[in-house]
Amino acid sequence: MKAPTSVEPMSQRMTVQFPYKRSTGEVTGRFLAGLKEQKKIWGRRIAGQGVVVPPNSYSEVDAKSGGEWVEVKDEGTITAVGIVAKPVADLHPSDASFAYVLVKLDGADTSLAHIVKDRLGELKVGARVKAVWAPDGERKGTIRDIACFQLVG
Amino acid sequence: MSKLRNVAIVGFAQAPIVADDPHRTAPEMLYPVVKQALKNANVERKDIDYQCAGSSDYIDGRAFSFSQVMEVMGAWPPVQDSHVEMDAIWAAHLVWVKMQAEECDTAIIAGFGKVSEGSPMHVLNLQLDPFYHASLGLDHVSTSALQASAYMAKAGVDDAGLAEVAARNRAAGAKNPDTQLRQAVSAAELQKTPFVTSPLREGYLPPIGETATCLVLAAEGKAEKMCDKPVWIHGVDHRIELQTIGARDLTSSASTKLAAKNAFAMAGVKGVNDAQVVELGSTTPVEELILRDALGLSSGLGGKADGPVVNPSGSPLCANPLMNTGLLRLAEGFRQLSGRAGERAVSGAKRAVVHASAGHCLQQNIVWVLGTERRWA
């Protein structure tokens, strides 16, 4: 008997998973604790950038540590918006069409990435949105402790 | 600028860019490409000092994925090898630096990645900050859409403008036998395609594609023997921006501007208009408009065509095989300046500016200046 001389394309399905328990570090941790424990959004004042929200462990501009903690509002202005027509399973945070937004919160000098689920047709750069908080007892210390943002008015 | 070593592109080969090559593994796709690139440079593997690949473990779904192509690239008997977890155009930069250090005279650079085997949306999500961005499920189309919306609001460019840029690239791609989408499509037709993530429509985004590529670089003294028309590297620089998307000005590309300024200074040219050809690694129409602005080119909107020819290959909008997309831009510069561009050749082209990008929303950018003559006497 001879080895097969030709084959149809063959493939095997494999799922490669890497579960992690990531340490947030102190700075991200304090920001997330503010969401979870206080329903407040904290940023840090960084030389050359102003109030950075969300804050990083070290300045992305000059790698310095530190910076004064500053509370910002949970309401702000959309600086960018993209509406996802068909969400991808196991990736996107909604089964129905939703929007990603960048929001410059009042008191902040940078924009926070988040989602909006309602009134998608009215979303545009310059529109005002406000945070919708996950209920007490359901906030886990993640960016999704802000459940989403919604249009003001 | 002090005198540097003259280094040239002397050969290139690629596999056809397809949505899915179901028959072959990534190494099997690359193997004939390396052979062909060596043949194109009139050398055998033993004549090559150094090899460097660009690939991604996340795309390949395995650790140290580059090790699977070491034999394919010819690492026997043992030779010097390196790798970048980036588009292979950054491997070319690494090799150029090695040649400046006189650690090697000849090298092959390979790009590979079977994009169809995994899910680019999930893979590219992993490039982002885990706490603030990745955990929101952001993917490369969504971040590109955020950038597009910010740019359109600021620049006053509308949906028709995006369609015009995309159509121009699709028309160019129709003349490029080595790209993936080779049918011209009108702006009006592209405007009818559905939104994937608004404001980006299906027609304003690249297809899923995969290939394998191999570029041959050689220093002066050897380059002339390997190629009838070596294409010399006159200048190169790359720069990176903040990772936090919301902390950047997404409507402009400061890193491209700076990389271009430094590459132009190294090349001794005043600016982009000293080139006849510009090849951009733009994966959306908005990226092209932002890059044009950063390099000092006009938008080209409204059918106005002044200055150098931009994206004669059809750009990544016609083919975006991850890990190869950038190296294909460098290959287009080589093809245009060495008389290998066929029907789409830009007549009289003597200098090219080549750009490629990595990360979300043009996070990192590299700019090359290429020429038909040696840069340094």
Shape of chain A from CA axes? extended
Strand order of the largest sheet of chain A: 6-5-4-7-8
**What's the architecture of the domain at 7-119 and 208-226 in chain B in CATH terms?**
3-Layer(aba) Sandwich
**Biggest interface and residues each:** A-B, 43 and 41 residues
Instruction: Write out the strand line-up for the largest beta sheet of chain B, numbering strands in chain order.
Output: 3-2-4-7-1-8-12-11-9-10
Poorly predicted segments of chain A: none
Number of strands of chain A: 8
Helix content of chain B: 25-40%
Sequence stretches where pLDDT stays below 50 over 5 or more residues of chain B: none
**Number of domain units of chain A:** 1
The general outline of chain B is: globular
Name of the level-1 CATH class of the domain at 7-119 and 208-226 in chain B: Alpha Beta
> N- to C-terminal separation of chain A?
78 Å
**What's the story with the biggest beta sheet of chain A?**
5 strands, antiparallel
| Total number of strands of chain B | 12
What does this structure look like?
The complex is a heterodimer of chains A (153) and B (377). With 153 residues, chain A is mostly beta strands. Chain A has one helix and eight strands. Chain A has one helix at residues 26-38; strands spanning 41-46, 50-52, 68-72, 75-84, 98-105, 112-116, 128-133, 146-151. In chain A, 31% of the residues are buried. Chain B has 377 residues and is of the alpha/beta class. In chain B, strands 3-2-4-7-1-8-12-11-9-10 form a ten-stranded mixed beta sheet, with helices on both faces. Chain B has a two-stranded antiparallel ribbon with strand order 5-6. In chain B, a hairpin with a 1-residue loop joins strand 5 (195-198) and strand 6. The A-B interface holds A 9, 11, 14, 16, 22, 24, 28, 32, 49, 52, 54, 56, 60-61, 79-86, 88, 90-93, 100-102, 104, 110-115, 124-126, 142-144 and B 22-23, 61-62, 119, 121-122, 125, 130-133, 135-139, 142-150, 153, 194-200, 242-247, 250.
